[in-house]
Each structure stands twice: as structure tokens, then as C-alpha cells.
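Bench log, entry 3. Co-assembly request; chain sequences pasted below exactly as received.
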Amino acid sequence: MLRHVVTVRDFTPSFLDSVFRSAAASKRQHAGRGRRARVRWSPHWNALRDHVMISLFYEASTRTRHSFEAAMARLGGKVITTENAAEFSSAIKGETLEDSIRIESGYGDVIVLRHKETGAAARAAAVSDVPVINAGDGDGEHPTQALLDLFTIAERFPGRRDLRVTFVGDLLKGRTVHSLAYLAAMLEGTPAGFAGKVNFVAPEIMQIPQPVEGLVRESGLSVALHDGLSPSLVADSDVIYMTRTQSERHDVAAGGDSYALTESLASALHDDAIVLHPLPRNRELPEAIDRLPQARYFEQARNGLFVRMAVLLWVFGELAPPTAAPGGVREERAYA
Ligand code: ASP
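Structure output for the full assembly:
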């Protein structure tokens, strides 16, 4: 069976365990690399040398496309890419996504797809002869972003299962929020759970969609909705997950001033808290915040490389199985 990565709902605790262990090992090895070992900084160096990845991006991307491509290159694989498939692929001549995928899956061994339509990755997976990785489908999901978000959270708070996670911004259209909130709900009650309370902070027209909120509530997590950030909410958060206004997906102008994490609000952060952002940012996250020790969004983006290396290894069956080491996740649970 092909190993597609379409939605976080397919993830199991043991999958997360394997991905995070592999990502952490690559990160450690990278940190310790010597001058002569610059390229051999993954335990899996060259593991994918016989594979070709096609990155098919119908929407703009910096981090996702390049971290996937760097990940493939670091694993010894080859990359075929188009940075603007909407304009430079046969989509402009009226070709359907399905036909493009049928063709591309004859050329590559894995397809990394970003598309403006929700559900596009599932449609692609249904007709593809090779694994499809969802690199963001409209306002649906962004599963590998959720993986690197959770990896960054787990790095900072190992073993914690009671975190107060505060999502801020365009929660309606922000696909990264949907994926991470689903993960919080799905993992609740398992050894891989990480959240105790979830706050959704957004202007009313950008509040979290009901199905996502419903799932988080049903999981048993404590949930609260707010229309703005306040010093007490900031002080009571362990993870503040900022997002920009998705102005390309609805008629709300870019900006984010109304829910910005200003310097004065940020002064309420507790010492151990972390501020994340999937990036790119607009005015919701002023550059002045970058110098705070709680700012972890550049580290989060960097983690994307290690996590996506692990995802590619998993897709090709090259990832070590989960260990039963103490602290490892032992309980399996199907989410689909
Ligand atoms: N880069 C993220 C995404 O593709 C977040 C964003 O664009 O706001 O969803």
C-alpha cells in the first residue's frame, strides 16, 4: 500500500514517535557535524539516492518547498520542481489536477503537492501511482507543518501533556491551525498527548471552524474562544501559536494589527513559554519579538528540514520502527 501523507488524521502515536526520533537524530548529528562531514549529517545520509521527488506547487511557498527539496537532497535523492505550477504547468491549458498527477506519478517516486483547493491532496492520492504528500491544500490541512510544530513543542516541553496552547489569528482559513488542533484532539488521552487547554483567539469573522472546534471539545480538552489577546491570556499560555490573515483566501485585508502580539503583551509571557508562527508573518508578529528568548519560530522553520527528512524516509519505508524505550509512545490508536 502506498504511504500517502494527506491528513493528520492518519497519524498514529508510533508514527509520530518514529518521525520525531529520526528528526531529532538528524538534528543532533547536524549540530555536531565537523567541517569534513558537512553533507553526512544525517544517520540516513544517501538513503534515498535512487529516488526522485516531484514538487508540484500551485501556490506560493518558501519554507515548505525548499525544506522538502533540501531534505530530499540531504538524503541523496533527486528533485524535479516547478515553483509556480498554476502558471507553468499544463493547468494553464486546462489540464485537470487528476491528469497532471497521473502523468507526474509516471516520472517520480513521490509527489509533494501544494494546491489552492481543499481536498486536492486526497484527490491526487486517489489517482496517483506513487505516494502523495500534502504540502497544504487550500484552507484544509498542512500535515507536515503540524508535525514540525509538534516536534518544536515537544523539544521545549518533553513529556508534558497539559500544555495551554493558544492559537491566534486567522483560525478560519489557517490550515496549519486546523492540522495542529486536530492533532491535539486526536492525541488527547494517549501517551503522545500534549495539550491540556486550547484557546482560540480571533476576530469573530476569523474564528475557528465549528467542525474543528467540535472535535477538540469532544476529545475532552478544555476549550475557550476569545476575540482578542489580553495580558492574562498571554501569561496563562505555554504555547502561543500566531498566524497571519490568509488574505488570499477571503476578503479580509492582510495586516493582523487587531490581534498582534505587541511588545507590551509579550512582556506578560512566562519565562518557559514559546511563541510559534508557521510564517510568513505580517503585522501580527512584530520584529521586536524576535529578540525575546520565547521566540521559537525560526527554530520551528529550521526543524522543518529534519522533520521532512523523516517523513520522506517513512514514505519509502526507510524509517526505523518505533522503539519501546522509556518515554517512547507504546500505545497505538487509529484516528481515521
Ligand atoms: N506557510 C503556511 C501555509 O502554507 C502559513 C501561511 O501561509 O500563512 O499554510
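The radius of gyration is 19 Å. Residues 167 and 241 are 5 Å apart (CA to CA).
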